[in-house]
Design goal:
This protein has one domain: Helix Hairpins. The chain has 3 helices and no strands. The chain is mainly α. The longest helix has 27 residues, at about 60-85. Helices cover about 75% and strands about 0% of the residues. Its EC number is 7.1.1.2. InterPro entries: NADH_UbQ_OxRdtase_chain4L/K, NUOK/Mnh_C1-like.
């Protein structure tokens, strides 16, 4: 495994472990998701550049578009929950009370 591939794998793993173990605030969960998506985007862009195929050149842009949609939906949920609950702590969110 090259050092570049190792660094992107490590970035994805750190984002995933941050999402799994440090679930106190909704904003930190969203930042971990964005770190995971950023590492996937850079890895896919380098992969399509290394294969030199025009067939896979649109895949990183599609992933970036989906990542932007995910970020906007996450921020909308963050604003909605902070307005209704007064905080972004994940412990205060209960689906049974909605």
């Amino acid at each position: 495994m090259t050092p570049v591939h190792f660094s992107f794998t490590l970035a994805f793993t750190l984002g995933f472990s941050g999402l799994a173990f440090h679930r106190k605030h909704l904003l930190s969960a969203l930042l971990c998701l964005e770190a995971m998506m950023l590492s996937l985007y850079i890895a896919m862009a380098l992969w399509s550049f290394q294969t030199e195929s025009t067939m896979f050149s649109s895949a990183p842009m599609m992933l970036l578009a989906f990542s932007a949609c995910e970020a906007s939906a996450g921020l909308a949920l963050l604003v909605a929950t902070s307005r209704t609950h007064g905080t972004d702590h994940l412990m205060n969110l209960n689906l049974l009370q909605c």
